[in-house]
Amino acid sequence: MEETNPISGAKIFLAEKRSCTRSAVHQTFHTFGLGRYDDGHNEPFGHLRTLNDETLGPGMTITHTAKRQLEIIVIPVIGACECRTDSIHFKAEIGQVMHFPLEPGETVRISNKFLGHPISYLFIEIDSVCPVEREVIGFSLEEALNSLHQLKIRSGHDFSIGLYDWRHEGCLSFDQHDQQYFVYVIEGAFEVNDRLIQGRDGLALWGIKSLEYEALSDGAIILVIRLVP
């Protein structure tokens, strides 16, 4: 479902349409095009290059190598993970976010130090538009229940996350209409600007005057990314 108005519009990235790459130790669902679904419909949105839902087996390590100047955001969903580059060594668990830059050709190693169970996390690559800090930021969804919690990472883009009970609503209004927003449902279901999006669905929005949403399940978690033009 897509609106073609070049000034304002929306595009849904359905979880069921994601491509998947997997090995014996690692599985990735790609919100943006890869493999047989790379038909031009699921291209990256603005500066948002990658939004992956990844699972890593017990005691395993995988690598990502940057093809361009990027900032990386890693959000643990199940368990805790560790990230290493030549300049950082971070650990994060649920309720924390890792944020750091990657230069072209630089590699980050992501590890699951648990020997008894897999972990899962969101791996986000976004174009750098300003100097990026190397940081681990904490947040509490329960303390900000039924409201968006802005992640205090030092980036040119804005990231907010919220945990909502059934039928609770939220609204963001904007003075500038040239902004781009990407909404991603981590758990549950939401209605966002009159569109139904469910677990692991994404919704790209541009040229909008407001962002209105309502949780359609208990324990629903939403991630909202504001991208600079």
TrEMBL record:
The residue ranges of the Quercetin 2,3-dioxygenase C-terminal cupin domain are: 151-223
Q: Enumerate the Pfam families for this protein.
A: Pirin_C_2
**What is the top-level taxon of the source organism?**
Bacteria
**InterPro entries hit by this protein:** Pirin, Quercetinase_C, RmlC-like_jellyroll
Q: Protein name, please?
A: Quercetin 2,3-dioxygenase C-terminal cupin domain-containing protein
